[in-house]
Amino acid sequence: MSGKLFIISAPSGAGKTTLVKHVLKRLNPEHAISRVVTYTTKSPREKEAVHGQDFYFISQAEFEQKITQEYFIEWSNAYGNYYGSPVSIMKQMARGESLIIILDRAGALQVKEKVPEATLIWIYTSSIDVLRNRLLARASETPKQVECRLMLAKKEIQAEDMHPCYQFHILNDDFYESLDDLYHVFNKILKKTV
User: Fold this and answer.
1) What is the reported pLDDT for 154?
2) What CATH homologous superfamily does 5-191 map to?
């Protein structure tokens, strides 16, 4: 039996990574599911300092070598850095492993082409101001970088509003309500495979 793939996307600051960490705690051990650790050339934020936990932090040269080796199922150059997901997730799913992968909208669409049965979940907030406040509170980027992220967030939000491609949309203004909503989506789909 093949494992399930869940793709989580959200504008920067919407809380996708925090929600995924917490939903994994609630899903395991009832459901065997794990998060795909993706690759990036960005510098780690203080809370992401553990290589191999949130990201594999590699150099631009290493990343570009992996591109030529067709190591990635998807990759992009977003926010001035490379991001990519290993193609090995296909083998993991074939072995029956269920996975969660956090991707931007472009990456989600690339993977959906290769894994049409993937479940796409869009996390959003009620306004750009909520995103701005969360990004500023993180204090990990300059105000200029925050504004760049917000500009990209507006484009992603507009794209999803005009051409929806995610099956589920979860509002993350109240963390615990959002976590419950996300858990119910996962639980419903994972139970279909039992």
Assistant:
1) 93
2) P-loop containing nucleotide triphosphate hydrolases (3.40.50.300)
Quote the pTM value.
Answer: 0.90
Three-class DSSP labels, 119-166: EEEEEECCCHHHHHHHHHHHCCCCHHHHHHHHHHHHHHHHHHHHCCCC
Domain parsing of the chain, residue ranges = 5-191
Q: Which residues pair with 86 in a beta bridge?
A: 72
Phi-psi region of 70 (alpha: psi -120 to 50; beta: other; left: phi over 0): left
Q: Could you count the other beta carbons within 10 Å of the beta carbon of residue 167?
A: 13
Q: What is residue 5's three-state secondary structure?
A: strand
Average pLDDT over residues 142-170: 92
Q: Average pLDDT for residues 62-72, to the nearest whole number?
A: 97
pLDDT value of residue 193: 55
C-alpha span between 192 and 2 (Å, rounded): 12
Q: Which two tokens stand for residue 147?
A: 């504004």
Backbone CA torsion sign across 164, 166, 168, 173: negative
How far, in Å, are 27, 178, 192, 194 from residue 30 at the CA level? 6, 20, 13, 11
Question: Which pLDDT tens digit goes with each residue over 100-152?
Answer: 999 989 899 999 999 999 999 999 999 999 999 998 888 778 888 888 889 98
| Pairwise CA distance, residues 53 & 69, whole Å | 23
d(CA 95, CA 11): 32
